Amino acid sequence: MASGPSEKGRTIRLSTELFLHIELVVYVALGILLSLTALLSLGSAALLLLEGMRDWSGTRAILDHRAHRFDPKRSRHHSEVIGNDLGGPRGS
Question: Which range of residues forms the domain containing residue 13?
Fold first, then answer.
């Protein structure tokens, strides 16, 4: 078999087509992942909106799991706070 310019050109053309197909597959996969991420984000935002609308005038947001911030025993400004909250006992 003669390894002439026509065989070399054919190899280049095939490799170029192969890389174009690989690039297309990668772009399609990235597009699917980005679309899925966008849909999940929109769904999550919609659920948060519905939850907020249901509890529009309620006090759940005030008395939520973050209420420990207002607990004097857990406050960083309370005189009895010791341990890992401040890296050690007060006054040291």
Answer: 5-57
